[in-house]
Amino acid sequence: MEIHLPSLPMLKILSYLDAYNLLQAAQVNKNWNALASSDVLWRKLCQRRWHYCDMVTLQLQGKETWKQFFIYRIWQEHAKTRAKPEDFTYKEIPVECGFYGYACYISGHGLTRNGQGKSVICMVSSKNTISTWDIHKSVITWVSPVQPASINLLTTLPDMHIAVTVDIQSTIKLWDCHNREALATNNLESPCKSLKAVISKDGPIVLVGDTLGNLYIFRIPDLHLISTVNVFPYGFDEIDCSPQKKWVLLSKNYPHILPKVFYMSSLLRTSEFSAPVSTILEFSLCQGAFWTPRREDRITLMSRSGFPQITKFETFDMKLEGIGNKVAVQGKLIASFFLPYYEESPNWIGVSDKDVIVCSTHFFLLLFTINGLHLQTFQYCPETIVRLCVDPVHVIVTCNNGSLDVYAWEERSLLLRKCYRLQNKRPLPLYGFINNLLCDDVSIVQLMRDGHGPYSLIAYALNICS
């Protein structure tokens, strides 16, 4: 005889389970299956893991329930981990790019409505245009009209198939990469130095920094100016937003300019705040910053200083506090350490959702806890590391010969395991360099330049079946 507990207490109990145990609970009987498949439970799991989940997300991915979405996204996330080198198709696509060679994904996670894998890259051309390329088909899918001035910055919103460009005349343009003409245009009075498009809780926005240290926020899709704030006396190098876009960090690698973290809502809802809410992090010469994936309030910063150079890591937790009728931000230092001496200082940094710092020198891939406990070392010699890409699932290393090493984070430990190597069929020339390293669920792309010659997209497209 089956005993049926009341639904609400059962849902409360089931809400403490992870996805694996929730699937196990669904096997008990029909009643448990119905409760354990509840959209309420699975949506919370999706939000906990990816933050951005809403009904639009569900519709875009062609799924009917949050359980279906969760299972499919996990499968997609780990597709590269389960793959073998022979599961990838090597593609070399000659492209014409400007000196900076900008490239960004403009397809959200490589997913489409019918679940087939697809990656689309947006590129800046030396002919004052932007274009999109289907990586799996190796074809150009859209080209903008020739612009009156050279484009020097590009950012994209892949989930919306939108690109934003800034040219040398400080003209900002928004494109949906389907229409011939730009959807919206705006201008800055000073040259643009940094650019970032994100989807905030208040909708999609563009953050722009100029050479005078001002931060501008524009609304998408009309590029209406929401707010302006002067952050530094000089232009800042980086705009780094937290996973749910609650915080935005602005930094410059300069001795007397310390990073600032702003509460995003105070920049967007100007009628609710008398002034932008921010705090200064006591950390000079910021060389790199990385928000902890799947956590909203934790950021790790890296600096290099002295001769020989000493590398320092510090991790802060951001906290919003109410003081009377006002809101204040505090950045609490929770961990700090100096990197032990290596022949070369780290060039690249990333952080896992388990608070593991991964950094690369020319010859080593290194793992530490945020408190400095050394966990793992992968040595590269005679090869050297020239690029590093870190996400919540994978770490991808580019070597100086153009080959790629794919690592995966272990599910139940803090360590990495090496999955496989993807060989570059055309070795990197002596004076060539890798300008970009990008990856989504179904492709890995490098933008390679042959010395003073043209650029090429070197792509590895994963052949998967839904």
Automatic annotation (TrEMBL):
Cellular component terms (Gene Ontology): cytoplasm
Involved pathway(s): Protein modification; protein ubiquitination
SUPFAM superfamilies from the UniProt entry: F-box domain, WD40 repeat-like
Any matching Pfam family: F-box-like
CDD domains registered for this protein in UniProt: F-box_FBXW12 (cd22137)
Gene3D superfamilies from the UniProt entry: 1.20.1280.50, YVTN repeat-like/Quinoprotein amine dehydrogenase
All copies of domain F-box, residue ranges: 1-45
PROSITE patterns xrefs: FBOX
UniProt keyword Disulfide bond, yes or no: no
Keywords: Ubl conjugation pathway
InterPro entries assigned to the protein according to its UniProt record, in alphabetical order: F-box-like_dom_sf, F-box_dom, F-box_SCF_Substrate_Recog, WD40/YVTN_repeat-like_dom_sf, WD40_repeat_dom_sf
PANTHER family: EXPRESSED SEQUENCE C85627-RELATED, F-BOX ONLY PROTEIN 3
Name of this protein: F-box and WD-40 domain protein 25
Protein's gene: Fbxw25
